[in-house]
Amino acid sequence: MNSKTNSEPNVKQLVPLFAVSNMEQSLSFYINGLGFTMTNKWIDDGKLRWCWLQLGGAAIMLQEFRKKGYDSWTPKGTVGEGVSINFQCKNALTIYHEIVSRGIEAKKPLVGNGMWVTGVSDPDGYALFFQSNTDVPEDTEYSGNDG
Length: 147
Description:
Blueprint lengths: L16 E3 L3 H11 L3 E8 L2 E9 L2 E6 L20 E5 L3 H10 L8 E3 L2 E7 L5 E7 L14
Parallel strand pairs: 1-4, 5-8
Antiparallel strand pairs: 2-3, 3-4, 6-7, 7-8
């Protein structure tokens, strides 16, 4: 093992993988609703099983596992329970307006921890939050004029 310290980080990105129950439904939510773009995919036996989705500098992966047979997986509980994915944004209020305009039900933005925060749940119940720094006072609820 090399004892020299490398100043360049080895880990470059964290990309969560979400097990999804219905790939088509999830893709509609993430691509049509949230604005992600599919940048990579794996098709197995003519079916899209895995994909990489990108939104700005953030990425997620989706995988629909087989329900029966080889490589099958069925969750024993609610997937994603207790886990939240937090996207750091330039302007979370813009994200809120974009996703609501696409028919996605989003939580009304609220200031918490010095950030505007809005959240959504995906079709499998994964909690996704979009947040951006602000100097607006804590616990301020978005009225449409704040920023």
